[in-house]
Each structure stands twice: as C-alpha cells, then as structure tokens.
Design brief:
9-stranded mixed beta sheet; 20% helix; 5-stranded mixed beta sheet; 18 strands; 18% strand; alpha/beta
Length: 506
C-alpha cells in the first residue's frame, strides 16, 4: 500500500524506540510509540522498557499529556485490549482523546488483541500495516514465541575462514578476538536461555553464562548492530543513534518532556564427539495480574505497575526474577542498579541484566539425551540456573533440574524442548555448541537466525562448525539471506536468516 511519508517517518521512529527494549522486556514484546499533537508535532515518545512496567503507549501518552487530544499515535504492535499486569492500552488511548492510531503489526495473541477494533468502535481512525516488515523484524523473537508457541532460536558460532571451530587436538581457545568474545557475551545477556549439547559440556566444560565487561569494553567490540532485532553496544549513544542503544537513561526525546523510557554423541546431543503447549504463556502480560498505574507515573518509567507481591518496583527496576513453572529454576532477573529486581516473583534470582549489580542470568539448558552431564560440571554451578533436558525414559542419578522430553531418532524432540521452554516464558534462545546439536536444529527447521563470527585464520582440519543438517545434495542446502556484515575487532560478524523467514502464522 502507499504509505504517506509522515506515517512512514513516525513509524520508523517508533520501530527505533522499540529496539531499546531488547533484553529487558521478556516475556513481553518490544514496542515503541510516537504521539503527535493535533497539529502533527511530536508530543511524546515511549517504549516498553521491562515486563510489568508501563507499555509504550502509556509512556508516550504521559509525556504528551493534554497535547495528545486530537492527535495521532504510532505504535509498532496493536494496542492491547486486556488487563494483565497493566491495563488496556486501547482504553488509555481513548482516555487521552487520540483521534487516530497507526499500527504496524496486529497482536497475534487472542488474549491481548482487539485494541484496534475497540478504537474503531469508539470513533478513532485506525490504520494498520504501516512498516509492518520493519516492526516484525525488531520484534521477531516475541512474534515467533506468540505465533508458533515456541522459543525463538539464534544459533551462534565462531570459526576460522575455512569453517573450523576447533583444531585437530580439540583446542578452540581462542579462535576469535577479545572484542568478538565481548560481543558474544552481550548477545548472551540479552537472551532468556543459552543452550548447548552434552558433547560441548563434556569436551569444554563451559560456564554458559553471560559475562559482559565494562561498558567501554563492550562498546569496543564493534559498531551498533544494523539488525534491529539484536541489541547494540551499551554505549551506542542516544535514541537518535538507533535501536542498538541499550542505555535508556541516555535517550533524548524529541520534546522537552520527561525521558521516554525507564531508567533503566548421538544426534540431538550436539558437541564434540558425535555427538508449554502452543500459544501458552505468550500474553503481553500475565493474565493473573491486574492493575493499571496512572500515566503520570509511567513517564518516570519506574513506578508504572505492580509486581506479584503488590509492591511497586523501584525506579529503574525491570522484571524481577521468574522461576519456571515446575522446574524450580529462575529464568531471568531484573535490570540491575539501584532498582535491581529482588527475586520476589516465583522464586526468582533477582539478578540484573548486566548493567547493574549481579548481571543478568539467562537460563542454561543442556541437551543431554542419556543424562551424562557430570555432577561437577561448571554448567551446574550456582552462577546461573540450569535445566538439563534428558529423554523421558532415561534413568539418572543426576542432581539437577531435569526436563524429560520425548525421543526423536537418537536424540531429543527439539521442538518439544522449545515449546517447554516457551511454557517457562523463555522467549529467546541463544544456541551455542556443538556442531551436532546445531545440525539437528537446522535439520528440523528450528533456527530462526544465525550469528557467525569469522576469524582471519585457517586451520585446514579439525572440528567443523556445523554437523550433519539433513543435506544430501546441493539442492537441499539451507539457504540464508544476509542482514549484516560487520567488523568486530579483527574479526567479522555475519548475521543471516533462513531464506524463508520462520516468523509466520502457525
């Protein structure tokens, strides 16, 4: 459709704002909003900064105040029409007197959808589909989660130019530079879970934790990601620098109002040596929680909602730790700093996201069909929660949080794994190690994005970065499309996706 230049420009800004929520909103989507006054001037901007906090529309409306009356709101995802941890954004827009709402992507969750219909029923002009592809890309993790009922998967690997991830003797430290490794930890910290196969655990004994260094170290890893669905360096700059900026406090709105955001083996096992039901948990907020804070508080970004125990989170606080329903392990914590999450929700850890005390603690998941994880493996230490996925008929004395899954061939049913993780509100998975596990994910069409770090080096032999992936002839290749090619120190980072994008309706 023909999109007026003004609509395209303001929606592009809303998409940019949405990107600032990456790594802190899960299990909610990232959403951006721009509000114009009746004369077409920007009156307010906002983005959803953390789960349980004010939605993008509420933040932008609070900033706009009375100037919103008779104006236009641009929002990247259809305004919600239900009461969860916050009230319906559709009602907030109606109460503000907005005359027109422009939407990029309809909400695929039937519990939250309906905002557009409610607005139209009350005489508000609604336009949908403006920059839909761009808005889908910035929110692809959550859209995969909501539409397919499984976690979104980013497969990361590091290799030499000839595709080797380790030498013949098994050594792999270090193929890439410190700058590339810092970049990996930054991406790990933005994910809900880090997944590896038992082969990698036995060969390398990894921690599988996110250990972002000081801001200056992370920023030196390279340019802000051109991919709006990946977070950029923490010091990427103000909002005008693009969605890669991870520092909400540095955002500079287009008005003189308050800041826009909160301060805020066998196949299937993977590694060296061979080796909730669909639609569950995808709401923009939990249906079990209610209460909508006044927009005036939302503008400050810290007191816009109530946590599970009824207490308001401190300014700058993010999602307090959540524990998976039945596994007894914490999936994520809140943003660190003075408002660090305290872990009061469902037994969470209260760890931060790496910008404050403690650091964000993504769930570690070991795919271990036969239960071979050593009891003293570093992945079982207390530096982060861990889930070990084993076959449902495997007998083991392993003292760990176990997830029993059906077998698939000689490994596990990986789609069942992603659906079980989604049931635990794991929106995004960062898949690392090893080549066998990565091959199985690819074979089953479960890789949504590939992030590759290539070092200017050659080995000629040794372990390949990717194992068997179901390709018997050249016509069966898994074809990708490049989104980004960026220098990271002396290395190169490549970001690509399957040629057929998996963010689709089921």
């Amino acid at each position: 459709m023909d999109i007026p230049a003004q609509d395209a420009a303001h929606m592009a800004r809303a998409v940019e704002l949405a990107g600032h929520g990456h790594g802190t909103t899960s299990p909610n989507p990232v959403v951006g909003c721009v509000v114009l006054d009746a004369d077409g001037r920007v009156a307010g901007e906002g983005f959803h900064a953390y789960a349980g906090g004010p939605h993008a529309e509420v933040v932008a409306l609070a900033q706009a105040g009375e100037r919103a009356r008779g104006g236009t709101a641009y929002v990247t995802l259809e305004p919600c029409d239900h009461t969860g941890r916050t009230g319906p954004c559709s009602l907030a827009l109606l109460a503000a007197g907005v005359a027109r709402v422009v939407i990029a992507v309809p909400d695929p969750n039937p519990k939250a959808a309906g905002g557009a219909a409610r607005l139209r029923a009350h005489g508000v002009s609604v336009t949908s589909g403006v920059l839909g592809a761009e808005a889908e890309r910035v929110n692809e993790e959550w859209l995969t989660y909501a539409r397919l009922g499984r976690s979104h998967v980013t497969w990361k690997f590091a290799a030499t130019l000839d595709g080797r991830s380790a030498a013949e003797d098994g050594t792999s430290q270090w193929i890439t530079s410190p700058a590339a490794r810092a970049d990996v930890h930054r991406l790990r910290a933005a994910a809900d879970a880090i997944v590896a196969g038992i082969g990698t655990v036995l060969a390398d004994d990894p921690h599988l934790t996110a250990r972002p260094g000081p801001t200056s170290d992370i920023a030196s890893a390279g340019p802000a990601s051109a991919d709006p669905a990946l977070p950029g360096p923490a010091s990427a700059g103000p909002a005008s620098a693009g969605p890669a900026s991870a520092g909400p406090a540095s955002l500079t709105p287009a008005t003189d109002a308050a800041p826009v955001g909160a301060a805020t083996s066998a196949p299937g096992d993977g590694g060296q040596g061979g080796g909730r039901v669909a639609g569950a948990g995808v709401g923009r907020d939990s249906e079990a929680r209610a209460g909508w804070a006044a927009p005036a508080s939302a503008a400050r970004g810290g007191a816009g909602d109530k946590s599970a125990d009824g207490a308001r989170p401190a300014e700058g606080a993010a999602d307090v730790g959540k524990g998976p329903r039945s596994a007894g392990v914490s999936v994520r914590g809140g943003v660190g700093g003075s408002g660090a999450g305290d872990g009061r929700e469902a037994g969470g850890s209260g760890a931060g996201d790496g910008r404050g005390t403690g650091g964000r603690r993504p769930l570690r998941v070991v795919v271990d069909t036969r239960g071979r994880t050593p009891q003293d493996a570093r992945v079982l230490d207390d530096s982060a929660p861990t889930l070990v996925a084993i076959a449902e008929d495997t007998g083991t004395g392993l003292k760990a949080d176990l997830l029993r899954l059906p077998r698939h061939g000689r490994g596990l049913d990986l789609e069942a794994l992603l659906k079980e993780l989604a049931a635990r509100e794991v929106v995004s998975v960062f898949l690392e190690g090893g080549p066998t596990l990565a091959g199985e994910f690819l074979r089953r069409g479960l890789v949504d994005r590939v992030v590759a770090y290539l070092a200017p080096a050659l080995l000629g032999s040794g372990r390949a970065a990717l194992g068997a992936a179901g390709v018997g002839t050249i016509g069966e290749m898994h074809r990708l499309t490049f989104d980004e090619i960026s220098p990271i120190g002396p290395d190169v980072r490549l970001i690509a996706r399957p040629a057929t994008q998996p963010v689709r309706e089921q």
